[in-house]
Amino acid sequence: MEFKVGDLVTRNSYGNDIVFKIIEITEEKVKLKGRNIRLIADALIEDLKKHEDEDIEDEKAFLDRLEMTPNLDRDDYFYLPGKILHIDSDNEYLSRCLEYYKKINIWTMGINEKEVNMSENIKKWLDEYKPNIVVITGHDAYNKKRGDIDDIEAYKNSKYFVEAIKEARKYESSHEKLIIIAGGCSSYYEELIKAGANFASSPKRINIHALDPAIIAAKMSLSNINKDIDLKDILEKTKYGKDGMGGIITKGTMYVGYPR
After folding, report:
1. CA distance 253 to 245
2. With a threshold of 0.90, does the pTM exceed it?
3. Average per-residue pLDDT for the chain
């Protein structure tokens, strides 16, 4: 069977569990990117199977439950959701997240930047856009051949996420005044939280959905600034719940005003 860049495929050796898009083909291997999961992988051509049905992974059911607009009293009150700065190393995933924010009417600035460069530029972006929430995401992976699970050098990009978080916390130290959501697939969750993130991936070192960081950012944007969030409820909105994302209890970022 012939394959070309852009084809949707699954891997037979992994039980065809994840849908990928082919992004590069060489003589030795095919480079793949998760259609919905923030995952970059390699595979042999003979291990691939063409995928026609986009609903594998129960994607439609997941997206259908993401109706985020709260039940607001718009007769008497007006609402000011928190502003989001979304920094993502993957431009395709960034575009999907921006579409999601737009659908639920949240102001967002999206920036496409490689993980290694995020810490160098983040204070400049924070100063320019003055967001209430910043998302720092892209790709990551844990490789046990490179070290133990508590060795940050065993992770593809976790150390760059940690550096970016620390720079953001130099700009604003308060977890209430700047909500930080960080990480990708299998990121070093504990170190990201320790560095200053409010939310991070991945407690169980699993893959996360392309929209997971955006789901949490949107929920924080639409949560009342005077009330503590329901942490468990927010995490359950993501694709894999507390296994994929974790965080700390904090307040929302949305102001409520009167009269309308």
Report:
1. 20
2. yes
3. 92
